[in-house]
Amino acid sequence: MRDISTPQTIDVSLRDVVKHYGPFQALKGVSLEVAKGETIVICGPSGSGKSTLIRCINQLETHDSGDIVVRGITVDGTPANTRDVRIEVGMVFQQFNLFPHITVLQNCTLALRLLNKGTKRLNEEKAMYYLERVRIAEQAHKYPAQLSGGQQQRVAIARALCMEPPVMLFDEPTSALDPEMINEVLQVMEDLARGGMTMICVTHEMGFARRVADRCVFMADGEIHEIAPAEAFFDAPESPRLRGFLDRILPSTAHS
Amino acid sequence: MRDISTPQTIDVSLRDVVKHYGPFQALKGVSLEVAKGETIVICGPSGSGKSTLIRCINQLETHDSGDIVVRGITVDGTPANTRDVRIEVGMVFQQFNLFPHITVLQNCTLALRLLNKGTKRLNEEKAMYYLERVRIAEQAHKYPAQLSGGQQQRVAIARALCMEPPVMLFDEPTSALDPEMINEVLQVMEDLARGGMTMICVTHEMGFARRVADRCVFMADGEIHEIAPAEAFFDAPESPRLRGFLDRILPSTAHS
Amino acid sequence: MPTSVDYSGYFQQMLGGVSITVQMLLWSFVISLAIGTVFGILRTGASGVVQIPLTIYISIMTGVPSLLILFIIYYGGSGVLTALLGYDRSFDVSPFSSGVAAIAMVNAAYVCDLVHGAIRNLPKGQFEACTVLGLPRFHAWRLILLPQVFRLALPGLVNIWIIILKETSLVSLVGLSDLVTVAKTAGGATSEPFVFLIVASFFYIAMSTLTVPLANRLERRLNRGQTPVGA
Amino acid sequence: ETLRLGNEGTNPPFSIMSGDGTLSGLEPDLAREVCKRIGADCKLVVMDFRALVPSLLEGKFDLLVGNMTPSEKRREKLDFTRPVLSNPVSFVVPKDSDWTLTPEGLRGKNVTVGLQRGDMNAAYLKTLFGDSVKYRDYDNPDQTILDLTAGRINMLFMPKLTAAVKLIDTPKGSDWKFAGEPYYSGQEDLPADQRGNAWPVRKGDTALLDRVNGALNAMLADCTYTKIREKYISTPLLPEDAACAAKK
Amino acid sequence: MHFDLSLAIASLPALFHGLMMTICLSIFVLLLGIVFSVPMALARMSKRRSLAWPALVFVIFFRGTPVLVLLYILYFGIAQFAWVRESFFWPLFADPFGCAVIGLALNHVAYMTDVVRGSLLSVPRGIAEASLALGIPERKVFLWVRLPLALRYGIRAYQNEVVGFIKGTAIVSVVTINDLTAVANGIFQETYDPLTPMITAAVMYWIVVNLVRLGFAGLDRWLNRHHAPEPASRTRTRKAAVA
Ligand SMILES: Nc1ncnc2c1ncn2[C@@H]1O[C@H](COP(=O)(O)OP(=O)(O)OP(=O)(O)O)[C@@H](O)[C@H]1O
Ligand SMILES: Nc1ncnc2c1ncn2[C@@H]1O[C@H](COP(=O)(O)OP(=O)(O)OP(=O)(O)O)[C@@H](O)[C@H]1O
Ligand SMILES: [Mg+2]
Ligand SMILES: [Mg+2]
């Protein structure tokens, strides 16, 4: 973990981001700065806007007002700008969302191919490199449905890494997994974090947060209630909401 | 609880009952005698043949060999005989199996009506009596989907009671229920047991077993491994299998 | 040029055609529903003696154009009936009855598939509950199982209703004066086929479009009480 | 006694299903008169043209009162009454054409002939012209004429009277004319005055045939036939008819 | 009345001729269906009213009208207007084959629009989102991810439509086309034996339809080869920790 008080490059910055779904306000002015190489864990009760927040960063949802700057690019919602932002940001979903009809290797190379990056051989080598990194290279020629949930999620991570994005977003990457499989995915994420990747993770895996998060963020009702380094966050939560939340959540995360 | 050593009428008797599903032997020669007014609790690991056993008693499954005698009727599998046996035996399922498209009251009176028992008014009075007994009379005109799980299960019990069967079978009647609702069903079953009904219950509710079971039966791999009065069963299990089983199961039944 | 009087006469005839079309629709639907339901129930039973002819029946009805089946019944039907039943030359296979027979036979196969599927999707516990309560089989089907089966099969049945509506137009090819026949004749006689045909097509569209809200109402009725109220 | 009679219903002026659903036309009117004379209670049933003969053969009808050419092939399965009317087939061609009506004369002229499916004349014409012209098969004469005026076909081969009533004598017939010799597709060895279209019964039903023939002959003799015919068609259709018309 | 085997055999060449016509027509229309149904489905799903509404009207009209009526309208109905006969696309309508193709295609495309739409909608949203998140442009996501997946989800519905459609072609004799049914009808008219030619034709239809079904079964297996057994994935939708 780094000392975040020294000035650093800011990879992702949000200022007063507001998002409505119809009349419902899902984000009520959220501000957050994420430094290069930093690992941020976001947690909070269901419906608090965690997914919405990270989906705004890569513009899967368009925000209504406020500024989002990703690696120097101010998000403005135009198609070209959106594409530029998405190339900077990789994302891993709760439901993996692998392409079921092509092999694991093709899952990893598809985007490279469609964006006309590199030759077929180079792309496959790159894909194999990242599959290796998530320790799943030997499954490269299987179809997603032939893998376990944990393996599928690791493929999803490798797929995102193939685009070599400087920033990675994770939306509850382990919560669709059986307990036995959660750890293998957390392990991969830990490796990434220690490798210096800028990461924003929505997760309730408190063990993971304690081990690798630089800062933890607590959201509720579309607002950030607390931002603190992991130890302080868990051991001395300031806001009563967070305390209540941690009381409810901690006993059931014994496995991590 | 009764002293079961004095001679009594036997309501249900099984001798060397064997049942195969294809090549798989689900019951490997089971013998059991249930006296009139006795409450038997059957427990055992999943797949041990508990459901198969009680489903053989009312011939939802036909057994391959051995004798089953229900209230003096030797089960022989002919349609008339089967019908006679089923009139003696009521059954309550794990999944309630209420008829969703008719009201609670109609659920209770339907069988009476179709079997030409009594007038409409008499039948409804009888149904209301049993609905009262399971403490749900005020819901008589609702549809099953409008009730909670526990209420639905109580309706299922009332529906079976309306046929006034001398013997009742229960197949895990509480295991599809949310914890809050389990007790209301157990309460009703306890009332029935104390009222002198002959009952055979498959259940893992150990609190219930301790309070009302005359004898407990432990099944594993299609065989009965132990039959004992409740106290002996829980506090001094003889077979090691049962000891292992109880060790695993007891902590999780804290709510009863 | 035809006068407007001619037109109104033909439009009145078209109303007669509509009545024939609607009668065909109702008869065909009711009969295919009845046969299809019985077949669907039989198909769920295990007996091979019943399964084999049923499979053949369904394969034929879903593999051969309805029009051809209509022709075979209409042009060949009385011969076949006479041969089968040994009566003497007196079966009247009218366009109406053969149209209803053909359309009902074809769609009974589809209804059978639907009902069969719905029965299989019914929770097994419903059957067991009926058994355990000792309900007589016929009544168990009538009062407990079929109402639920139809609820599950409703969207498919609405589809079949619309298909039958359109298939009734085929009987115009064996000379029944249904809506299409009238439109065709009127068009030939006035040399203005377009008007009459468009009017006919609007009738069919209106009928099938009207079906949707009616089906929704029916669905709500069948679902009565089966969705939880309040949380 | 009830007789069931089959008729087409869509072939004016011989058979017309009118706007209010009643059946009129020369054939039904003649049939009703015949029934009256033989003392039978008749039920006239309208049916698709193609279904008429099979239905007769299967016993759904006792007699067809549609004019039909008694060809060799039909005589194998049916017995025919005396000629009821003479309506030979003729060609209809564009007014400004000068085609020779032979395979050689028509080849390369891009001629498409409209025919009625299941019609005796259709088979005949196809053997006559072979592949020198194109053919198109229609379900009824109305559609044939609609398509002729729409320009999809440019020749008809249909009963002359029908073509006259439906096309040549109407305003839209101004672009068309009859051509060639009238053609009779029945028995070729018959003398011209015995040719004509007749009504079929099932083979061997001579009892009925004799009664109908008797009635028809009587109607021709006392000029009832002519009276009925004049309601629909101005020109005589049979020699006896012509004689009656001349008497007036 | 009985089945006359010698007549059936003698009729085979003519019936095959009719069958060829049926098959040609089907192939033509099925190709048109593939080409036009995707844009139609996109229009129908579009957020732009000016696209969605016409597409909806198209679907309602051409699905709701019986094919028979549609063919009559196209063949006899619009030929009644002189301006149609003078327009440049008259040659298409003047030809019965052209008319039949257009009539059947309009109906088929209307059905296919809903088939394609249903299949596209059944592609999980997350999979398209994952592609977008990878930076793939929307058009390519559609072409390379949603469409291939929709094909897999929609293959059953497509098979039903194709079979229904092939059976529906039996109607084209009303616009003077000599397809299988028309040929059988012609033989019936010549011989007054309805059963033999029509049952023979029915058998031919049955064989074609079942070959098509077999073909689709094979295609289905091939497209879904990625669901081949091996360890099945065990995913759980329930949330892990927070209740
Ligand atoms: N597409 C949408 N349309 C309307 N409302 C939405 C939509 N997506 C999310 N919401 C609402 O916005 C709020 C925030 O949703 P979000 O998915 O961001 O919550 P979350 O914190 O990720 O919750 P969870 O832990 O359940 O994933 C919720 O109340 C949700 O109902
Ligand atoms: N219809 C069937 N066909 C084949 N095998 C069956 C069938 N029903 C039950 N079995 C098998 O018979 C064995 C006993 O099943 P049974 O349902 O009686 O177990 P159980 O003790 O009730 O288990 P549980 O606690 O899971 O309900 C199991 O191994 C089961 O797989
Ligand atoms: Mg979320
Ligand atoms: Mg069980």
TrEMBL record, chains A, B:
Keywords: ATP-binding, Nucleotide-binding, Transport. CDD domains: ABC_HisP_GlnQ. Belongs to the ABC transporter superfamily. It comes from the Bacteria. Residues 12-246 form the ABC transporter domain. Signal peptide: none annotated. InterPro entries: AAA+_ATPase (IPR003593), ABC_ATPase_HisP-typ (IPR030679), ABC_transporter-like_ATP-bd (IPR003439), ABC_transporter-like_CS (IPR017871), MetN_ABC_transporter-like (IPR050086), P-loop_NTPase (IPR027417). This is ATP-binding cassette domain-containing protein. SMART domains: AAA. GO terms for molecular function: ABC-type amino acid transporter activity; ATP binding; ATP hydrolysis activity.
TrEMBL record, chain C:
This is ABC transporter permease subunit. Residues 18-215 form the ABC transmembrane type-1 domain. Its main location: membrane. Keywords: Cell inner membrane, Cell membrane, Membrane, Transmembrane, Transmembrane helix, Transport. It is a multi-pass membrane protein. It is found in: Cell inner membrane; Cell membrane. Signal peptide: none annotated.
TrEMBL record, chain E:
It is found in: Cell inner membrane; Cell membrane. The chain crosses the membrane at residues 20-43, 55-76, 88-111, 162-183, 195-216. Pfam families: BPD_transp_1 (PF00528). Residues 19-216 form the ABC transmembrane type-1 domain. Keywords: Amino-acid transport, Cell membrane, Membrane, Transmembrane, Transmembrane helix, Transport. It is a multi-pass membrane protein. The keyword Cell wall biogenesis/degradation does not apply. GO terms for cellular component: ATP-binding cassette (ABC) transporter complex. One of its GO terms (biological process) is amino acid transport. Belongs to the binding-protein-dependent transport system permease family. HisMQ subfamily. This is ABC transporter permease subunit.
